[in-house]
Amino acid sequence: MEEKRESRRTRYTKAVIRQAFLFLMEKKNINKITVKEICETADVNRGTFYSYYKDAYDLLDKIEGELYDEIFGALKGHNPREVIYEIFCRIQKNSDLCKVLFSDNGDPDFLKRVMYIAEKACIDDWAEKMHTDDIVLLRYIYAFTAVGSVGIIREWIGGGMKESAEEMSEIVSRITYGGLGVFEAPEKNKMKEAYMI
Q1: Cα dihedral value 132, 138, 140, 146, nearest 10
Q2: Is 86 within a domain?
Q3: Does residue 108 register a pLDDT over 80?
């Protein structure tokens, strides 16, 4: 019984430290946040902080790792359209956290890492739909799609997430799959180009 109380206390203390850290990240970049500030905001002593984390970067890494694992766990066995939807659902579910992590003060590479969770599923799906085994082309398309999706997600978060996860995943899917059509039938594209001249 004593262990359960300790475990609950540990969870509570970590949650308070994380909330304090995210509160500070709303105002400034991680390289300007000190352990002293985190501890003062969380009302815990430095020894308590260091029993869980090495520094502010370690704390950020653990917060990102937990969100990444949650998103990754939700995507297993899904097709690319479902993967896009699940990513938006997890971001919406963790909106307070994501607003900070994906802000200008957050880690710019984290959202890209999240988007690359779906790389293999998308490339496999596109190879089949496009009838190609040109992995270089497919990786270029995925890189373009991932960076574009990052921009859409940041715009969505910045705009207050008014649209649902379903609406946002449909936007990304339509842009992506519409763009893939350009590569499906080169003969049709040549005809279109001829009419545009």
Answers
A1: 150
A2: yes
A3: no
Instruction: Report how many domains make up the chain.
Output: 1
Question: With contact defined as beta carbons under 8 Å apart, do 172 and 138 qualify?
Answer: no
Give the C-alpha separation, 147 to 131, whole Å: 24
Q: How far is CA 80 from CA 43, 50, 58, 101, in A?
A: 44, 41, 32, 24
What residues contact residue 149 under an 8 Å CB cut-off, 6+ apart? 84, 115, 172
Cα torsion through 63, 92, 29, 22, rounded to 10? -60
What range does the domain containing 142 cover? 79-196
100 is a domain residue: yes
Helix (H) or strand (E) holding 71: helix 56-75
Question: What is the mean predicted confidence (pLDDT) over 56-80?
Answer: 86
- Domain assignment of residue 20, yes or no: no
Considering only residues 87 and 36, tell me which one the structure prediction assigns the higher pLDDT.
36
| Cβ contacts of 130 within 8 Å, gap of 6 or more | 138, 180, 183, 184
pLDDT digits (tens, 9 = 90+) for 137-178: 899 988 988 889 889 999 999 899 999 999 999 999 888 887
